């Protein structure tokens, strides 16, 4: 299922408008059930993860359909509060629906989302946040049953600035009586987009993008229209592809500050980057040098999601780049596949040392996860000869028409879904 065939060596040139953000739209689709309203989401990316979220909404009794690039949700008819295992299994981040279902119906049942390719993916911080608000949570086998007899606003201090736990707490707190203050909240731009959507719902919320988010109930709006922010990880992915191949592309309708850490790394390596108000132009016409040590941490530090992509740009850069992956315990599964292309990478625990080689050679490789798969595509674009990537559906989870985006920039590739 889903195979990429890439003939490397072409430089990339042209304009890119990044898709809507996967990691912004998923929590917003969950938020659309809180007040029972009609929602129109513009710039909603066509991804398998978005499809999985629509399946969950329909299972809950909502209407969810895609028309002309927008997704329309009508949650007024919601009549269920459970997400069965087969739907949870489709997308582990479905746990984000827990807080929203609880806020709407004061009861929710999901199966444990379980781990994924990146690691165990526990949800203890999610559950602790909901318990702080007064939810009663029973874990029976692989099922989690939550209910409350009235959530009460409180202070929630997250032990770690978890993106998902921050979002779940924000969503559940909408239904709490009194003010909730979330401290040590995650600060990702996608959380700011969620806050903007929640304000349109009539939620009294502030502080997203900082470590302290305050929520104090909501009024009910019957219809909401929202444009999803553009995907900063996809923007950084396109930039890393150009760093690999050489050439020059312009990203349009972006917020440069959202992926500044990636741009700073590419600039250090020798790429020329021009930042506009809502555009970024990257030109790479010289051999790159290795980057300074890359250490992944919560936003605004270097994002874990861009680690595999920047690694692809380092594979033929002169010198050694040291990566330290602090967020997920198993996010180097793309390394053995990159080594099949001739890369020189040594992994010791959370540290990967990448020493640039002269050229990569095409080979048969397998995508191991979403961003690792995209990184193999990036590496293959610069390899000599043909690379075949057995993708197994990973890349389509987060990249809309990624093959068309790259082909439009001059890449020589074909993709079979
Ligand atoms: C979100 O995942 C993103 N997914 C991830 O993007 C991203 O890598 C991650 O945030 C970090 O930025 C979506 O937004 C849908 P976390 P999330 O909770 O919320 C530990 C991609 O490629 N943790 O911030 O699951 C966890 O194990 C995906 O687009 C707990 O220990 O990330 C991990 O080590 C991959 N207990 C760390 O925190 C918890 O209850 C970061 O997780 C929750 C998390």
What does this entry show, briefly?
The chain is of the alpha/beta class and 417 residues long. The protein has two domains: 3-19 and 230-416, Alpha-beta prism (UDP-n-acetylglucosamine1-carboxyvinyl-transferase, Chain), CATH 3.65.10.10; 22-227, Enolpyruvate transferase domain (UDP-n-acetylglucosamine1-carboxyvinyl-transferase, Chain). Helices cover 30% and strands 27% of the residues.
In words, what does this structure look like?
By secondary structure, the protein is an alpha/beta fold. It folds into 2 domains: 3-19 and 230-416, Enolpyruvate transferase domain (UDP-n-acetylglucosamine1-carboxyvinyl-transferase, Chain, Alpha-beta prism), CATH 3.65.10; 22-227, Alpha-beta prism (UDP-n-acetylglucosamine1-carboxyvinyl-transferase, Chain), CATH 3.65.10. The chain contains 13 helices and 24 strands. It has helices spanning 22-31, 48-59, 85-90, 97-105, 124-132, 163-173, 189-201, 232-245, 260-269, 307-314, 335-340, 370-381, 402-408; strands at 3-7, 12-17, 38-42, 63-67, 70-74, 82-83, 107-111, 136-140, 143-147, 155-157, 180-183, 203-206, 212-218, 223-227, 247-252, 272-275, 279-284, 294-295, 320-324, 344-348, 351-355, 364-366, 386-390, 412-416. The strands form 6 sheets. The chain has a 4-stranded mixed sheet with strand order 22-23-1-24. Strands 2-15-17-16 form a 4-stranded mixed sheet. A 4-stranded mixed sheet has the order 4-5-3-14. α8 (232-245) packs parallel to α10. The longest helix has 14 residues, at 232-245. The protein is elongated, with a radius of gyration of 21 Å. The model has no long low-confidence stretch (mean pLDDT 96). The structure holds ligand EPZ. Ligand EPZ is lined by residues 22-23, 26, 93, 119, 121-126, 160, 162-165, 186, 304-305, 327-328, 370-371, 398.
């Amino acid at each position: 299922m889903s195979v990429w065939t890439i003939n490397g060596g072409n430089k990339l040139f042209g304009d890119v408008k990044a898709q809507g953000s996967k990691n912004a739209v998923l929590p917003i689709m969950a938020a659309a059930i809180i007040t029972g309203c009609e929602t129109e989401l513009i710039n909603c990316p066509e991804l398998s993860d978005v499809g999985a979220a629509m399946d969950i909404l329909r299972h809950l009794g909502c209407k969810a359909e895609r028309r002309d690039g927008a997704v329309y949700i009508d949650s007024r008819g919601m009549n269920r509060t459970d997400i069965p295992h087969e739907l949870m299994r489709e997308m582990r981040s479905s746990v984000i629906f827990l807080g929203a279902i609880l806020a709407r119906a004061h009861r929710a049942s999901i199966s444990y989302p379980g781990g994924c390719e990146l690691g165990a993916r526990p949800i203890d911080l999610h559950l602790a946040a909901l318990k702080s608000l007064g939810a009663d949570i029973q874990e029976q086998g692989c099922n989690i049953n939550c209910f409350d007899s009235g959530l009460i606003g409180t202070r929630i201090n997250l032990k770690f600035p978890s993106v998902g736990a921050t979002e779940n707490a924000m969503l559940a707190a909408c239904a709490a009586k009194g003010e909730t203050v979330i401290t040590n909240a995650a600060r990702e731009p996608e959380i700011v987009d969620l806050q903007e959507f929640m304000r349109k719902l009539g939620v009294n919320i502030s502080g997203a993008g900082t470590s302290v988010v305050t929520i104090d109930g909501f009024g009910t709006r019957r219809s909401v229209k929202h444009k999803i922010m553009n995907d900063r990880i996809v923007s950084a992915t396109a930039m890393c592809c150009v760093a690999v191949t050489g050439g020059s592309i312009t990203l349009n309708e972006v917020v440069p500050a959202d992926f500044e850490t990636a741009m700073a790394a590419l600039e250090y390596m020798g790429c020329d980057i021009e930042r506009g108000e809502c555009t970024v132009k990257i030109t790479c016409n010289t051999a790159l040098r290795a980057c300074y040590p890359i250490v992944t941490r919560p936003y605004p530090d270097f994002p874990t999601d861009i680690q595999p992509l920047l690694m692809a740009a380092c594979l033929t850069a002169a010198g050694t780049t040291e990566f330290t992956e602090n967020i997920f315990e198993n996010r180097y599964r793309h390394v053995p596949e990159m080594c099949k292309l001739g890369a020189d990478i040594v992994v010791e625990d959370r540290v990967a040392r990448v020493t640039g080689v002269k050229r990569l050679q095409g080979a048969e490789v397998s995508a191991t996860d979403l961003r690792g798969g995209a990184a193999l595509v990036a590496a293959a674009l610069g390899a000599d000869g043909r690379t075949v990537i057995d993708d197994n559906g990973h890349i389509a989870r987060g990249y809309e028409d990624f093959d068309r985006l790259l082909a439009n920039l001059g890449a020589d590739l074909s993709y079979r879904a």
